[in-house]
Amino acid sequence: MTSVTFGRQRVDGTLTGDGVTLDTDGPTAELVERITTPVISNPVAGEWTAALVERSETGGEYERGLAIYTPRNEGPPEHVHPSYEERFEVIEGAFLFSIDGERQPLAAGEQITVPPGAPHTFRNESDELASCVVETRPAGELQGVIATLSGLAHDGKLTASGAPRFLQAMVMVAELADDTVFTSPPPSVQRRLAAVVAPLARRAGYRATYPEYLDATYWIERVEQPD
């Protein structure tokens, strides 16, 4: 088997961590050949993502990306996208989805759609790397949210569980209420806190997204890219 490895973190020019190793003839490696942005990584959450179709290519109608997760990855906290649906197609591995309280296992080749407003999460049920294609319709801010959380992870600004720290979280709650809302603590509690705290956090320099994390150069310098 011929393999390709990428996705290791660059620290002072030195590659660290295991990264992603794929069979070059496998379906995930074939998709990697089609990515349109650098691979970004979240070393705290154990995930790698890259765009396949960017919102600028579709006039905002949709965007599509590739996501790869470490074995037995617990996935994101339960959350809601109020203004768009999210479609998942499993490429390799096995996932367990929870959508509005209902559990749904998915294997390679299977798909599922999460309607707007439905609380959902998922995890990698396999002992291997697992991958899926994620599409949002219409295109929301999900790629920017993922890039921001991943950049914060690289800069040591997330908690051990992968969550943004309090002031950062309050700004994100205030500015992303129409895009991505985590269900714990209750959104009503989050909104009340954010109304008071977010203005103070902004004055301290916190933002919902940061230009450097949306810049391809940041990721080329910090993450090993596939050839």
How would you write the strand order of the largest sheet?
5-6-7-14-9-12
CATH class: Mainly Beta
**Helix and strand composition category:** alpha+beta
| Count of the domains | 1
Looking at the structure, the CATH topology is Jelly Rolls
Number of alpha- plus pi-helical segments: 6
N-C termini distance: 17 Å
Beta-strand fraction estimate: 25-35%
Radius of gyration equals: 17 Å
Q: How would you name the CATH homologous superfamily?
A: Jelly Rolls
Helix content: 25-40%
Q: Unreliable segments (pLDDT under 50, ≥5 consecutive)? A: none
Q: Which outline best applies?
A: globular
Number of strands: 15
How are helices and strands ordered from N to C? EEEEHEEHEEEEEEEEHHEHH
The largest β sheet comes out as:
6 strands, antiparallel
Task: Give an overview in words.
This protein has 227 residues and is an alpha+beta fold. It has one domain (3-222): Sandwich (Jelly Rolls). It has helices at residues 27-32, 55-58, 142-154, 166-175, 187-203, 216-222, and strands at residues 3-6, 9-11, 14-16, 20-23, 40-42, 47-53, 63-69, 79-80, 85-92, 94-99, 102-107, 111-114, 120-124, 130-137, 181-182. Helix 4 crosses helix 5. The longest helix is centred in the last third of the chain and has 17 residues, at 187-203. The mean pLDDT is 96.
